[in-house]
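--- STAGE predict ---
source: upstream dedup step, 1 unique chain passed
mode: sequence only
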Amino acid sequence: MDAYPVADLVGYLSGRWRLDREIVAASGEPLGRFGGTCAFDADGEELVQRERGVLDFGAHHGEATRELRFRLTGPGSADVHFDHGGFFHTVDLTSGSWLASHPCAEDLYRVEYRVLGADHWRHEWTVRGPSKDHVIFSAFRRDQGLPSTG
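--- STAGE serialize ---
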């Protein structure tokens, strides 16, 4: 599957997306699911990602939110930070795909981004370590009819 190059990260990501996420154990056993919306909005030199939806994970079933801040480093690239300001990882979608990692205590998160077209992209996080051993699949599809998640 060919990647779709992104020359303008802000132009590509800005707007509203439908977000479907699955969390699967390394053995293949389903662990959880998230369904909701994701919005990317420009805020000065940053692009703010806001997710809102319903998370089913173990015994938990309820609303979940997340915010990330993309600090632009080039036309198709950014340093991604958590909402508390800490660095998460770098992303560069100029080729349409990207690999990055993030250490978290003794666990390691590795991500593969893949842009599939003008209105569809995904990322897959593989999480390994003494505390975690799972994969998180996230699919984003543009939907102009969705209300803001902000």
